[in-house]
């Protein structure tokens, strides 16, 4: 069962800039067509949470998965839809928006869900803890990586 | 874990093998998937498990040896608050537990933290609660006095 968006993916874009440093640090304004999962996450969060500010970071390179994987993400969502909601409800909204990705290729999703006011008073992205290698040899992660490649 | 014990007994009578590892922290999760075959059994067992202890963590690895950075972060945060006596369940040992807890909590990722039977969230939420002081309050509601609160009192 593949997310429908993955079946529509075009081949890799030929317009990649070779002079771009640190290819894995892509600014959120510059979605990479060769990263369908990242694009799908960005689209769904934008559509469903109408964020004032959105960052989607592929952190797969920080984990025990092959280069180019789209399995571990960190998202920062700033939306007025979070106002009055406890953290757990905010995170559930994000999880719901990304249900398809989470049940197929995304293995880990770190979430920061802030209101515009909270973002204004503390505009910082949290850092993920160092990987302890748990994904290595984990057959569930292997299945998800396979789903992401197909 | 009466339901697990009943399931184990039923299983033993039928002759199926049961593997009951004891984790480093002394918490037993009967990890044989063969007798927890019905999803409903897993859900019922989880319902009992989260009520049985004040603090329950479903994680990758054990508190002594976490196998995931996010799970380790939960362990470290609890340790900072002096919470050492809690139930932890290693989802890497049992795929039925791993999938079952995601369905039980309706939460897609591990680690998962429960306080007094109520789902609190994962690593991100626990970290934010720790940073904004809510964790001390929530532990207090469970009858647990955070060591950070004690340290703060002593410094005044």
UniProtKB/TrEMBL annotation, chain A:
Membrane-spanning segments: none
Gene Ontology CC terms: iron-sulfur cluster assembly complex; mitochondrion
Residue ranges of the region described as Disordered: 117-150
SUPFAM superfamilies: BolA-like (SSF82657)
Pfam families, A to Z: BolA
Entries under Gene3D superfamilies matching the protein: BolA-like
Basic and acidic residues bias: start-end ranges: 136-150
Domain of life, source organism: Eukaryota
Protein family (similarity comment): Belongs to the BolA/IbaG family.
Free-text function comment from the UniProt entry: Acts as a mitochondrial iron-sulfur (Fe-S) cluster assembly factor that facilitates (Fe-S) cluster insertion into a subset of mitochondrial proteins. Probably acts together with the monothiol glutaredoxin GLRX5. May protect cells against oxidative stress.
Assembly mode: Interacts with GLRX5.
Protein name (record): BolA-like protein 1
Organism from which the protein derives: Dissostichus eleginoides (Patagonian toothfish)
TrEMBL record, chain B:
GO CC, one annotated term: mitochondrial matrix
Keywords: 2Fe-2S, Iron, Iron-sulfur, Metal-binding, Redox-active center
SUPFAM superfamilies: Thioredoxin-like
Keyword hit for Transferase: no
InterPro entries xref list: Glutaredoxin (IPR002109), GRX_PICOT-like (IPR033658), Monothiol_GRX-rel (IPR004480), Thioredoxin-like_sf (IPR036249)
UniProt KW Iron keyword: yes
Record-annotated Glutaredoxin domain positions: 55-120
Domain of life of the organism encoding this protein: Eukaryota
Pfam families, alphabetized: Glutaredoxin (PF00462)
Alphabetized GO MF terms: 2 iron, 2 sulfur cluster binding; metal ion binding
Name of the protein this chain belongs to: Glutaredoxin-related protein 5, mitochondrial
